[in-house]
Specification:
This protein is mainly β. About 5% of the residues lie in helices and about 35% in strands.
Length: about 200
Amino acid sequence: MFDGKDLSQWRTFKQEGLSEQWVIEDGAIKLTAAGGGDILTRARYQDFDLRLDWKISEVGNSGIFILADETGEHIYSHAPEIQILDNERHPDNKLDTHLSGSLYDMIASPKASHRLAGEWNRVRILLDQGQLTIWQNGVQTASVEIGSAEWKRLVAASKFADWAGFAANSSGHIGLQDHGDVVWFKNLKIKELKR
């Protein structure tokens, strides 16, 4: 998805090109300033094993989206998010389900998976026939089947309860969030699971 040198597999949400705020720095994708917009892969993925490293600036917030489309107003309109956050300083740290590694607003990540802002974190996101499993820094942070009774209960208790089309896609783009803060991503690798 990214070899440290080439951003051609990425573009800005609902645009053909890539904003100049998203740059390559020391082999990593870096959002240098607010206004770059959310970005997504040109390709769509259904069943996959995604691995990447991320680092957030102090008081920073960002995220990784899966199963994203461009039919909603925002990249997050239909896409589940794996949260990226400075857990110590960002004001969104009041809810456990908003801490880094969490399935945002649905499943809280354990404290053992957390690292301080400025440190690299390794995330693995496995989606296999609807079963979504997430690890951060070697610790499993979530495991749930999209569309199951448990999933529906989690959605109903979240901010997404009334969001039409949320997580309804069987395939979609991988997205990286511009939440207005400097963030880095590297070692982005995805393996499609063939049947």
